[in-house]
Amino acid sequence: MNSSLLSLASILSITLLYSAPLIYTALGGILSENAGVVNIGLEGMMSIGAVVGSIVGYYVGNPWIAFICGGLGGMLIALLHAVATINFAADHVVSGIAINLIGPGLSIFLCRLFFDGAAMSKSIPYENKLPILFGKIFKGSGSSSGFARFLDIVFSQYASVYLAFILVLIVYFVLYKTKFGLRIRAVGEYPKAAETLGVDAYKIKYICVLASGFFAGLGGASMSLAVVSNYRETLISGQGFIALAAVIFGGWKPQGAMLACLLFGFAQGLSVFLGSRGINIDTNLLSMIPYVITLLVLILFVKGSRAPSSDGIPYERNK
To answer: In angstroms, rounded to a whole number, what is the distance separating the alpha carbons of residues 216 and 150?
Structure first.
């Protein structure tokens, strides 16, 4: 396989790897915002998911238990956001900012608590990371070996990558093909009207905000259990905000957010690939690539996007 095809395969492989955490987190944002609750606290929820995943992964040794525990960690901190915005009708943005301040700080505290005061968790052994699917399955021989090698590089991914795409289909089906999904969207558009038809708007909002935290926690855990093998302070550096941008760019739809996450994942993959090749570009400029593309996308392409009508508006039954 020639070097240009090998480079393309490497970039695509890194794109899929880095897109998965964004997809998990963006799906969480979609569920929350379709129910009318703005969740800019995705970054903080990802941080908790990442540190809980690394702690459980290191001490328990089972990556799937660690992965689920990461999701539950994100769900637990999402409960704070749910109580503030649903029960106390707090401003959604203010509550989300608070979550983004609490999450990283609590993550560092937990990391120091479980790893002898260190700000970085101990590395999870390779065999205790999430499994790689389709490893070496595409390798062939003879004239087909070059293309088989290309497929092997691209599709030999951690299980979390494939699960992210499966969840896109599941969330799409739930939102647009089920009665429960119709209720979610009704609450996000007109909660008072939904309640006149017997829908418990508070219950729907709670379910969606908690699910949002769970998905964001999975996104963080996939960073510490697949992308890398430990937690550190800079692991979740803007990933939650990029996922939030993907929600907006994708029109608050799971399939649109997935495509946006692939675009942002490609930007990160390009940054990692160029950095690994030792190209004479300042590393700070390389690390800026995903965020610059995120800003450009938001500026150029989201003008016509429309959020659910009641998104971000505190809902109180008695008013």
So the answer is: 31
Task: Count CB-CB contacts under 10 A for residue 172.
Answer: 17
* 260 Rama sector, left if φ>0, alpha if ψ -120 to 50, beta otherwise: alpha
Task: Give the DSSP per-residue string, 236-247.
Answer: SSSHHHHHHHHH
- pTM given for the model: 0.93
Say if residue 8 is exposed, middle or buried (CB neighbours under 10 Å; 0-12, 13-18, 19+): middle
Rounded (10°) CA dihedral 289, 164, 83, 241: 0
Rg (CA), the chain: 20
Q: What residues contact residue 15 under an 8 Å CB cut-off, 6+ apart? A: 262, 265, 266, 268, 269
Render pLDDT for 106-165 as a digit per residue (tens, 0 to 9).
999 999 999 999 999 999 998 889 999 876 666 544 445 677 788 888 888 999 999 999
Which tokens is 219 given? 């996104």
Pick the most confident of 210-224, 236-250, 251-265, 279-293.
Answer: 210-224
Q: Pick the closest to residue 252 from 305, 206, 216 (CA basis).
A: 305
d(CA 46, CA 179): 29
| Residues 100 and 240 sit within 8 Å (Cβ to Cβ) | yes
SS3 content of the chain, % helix, strand, coil (to 5): 75, 0, 25
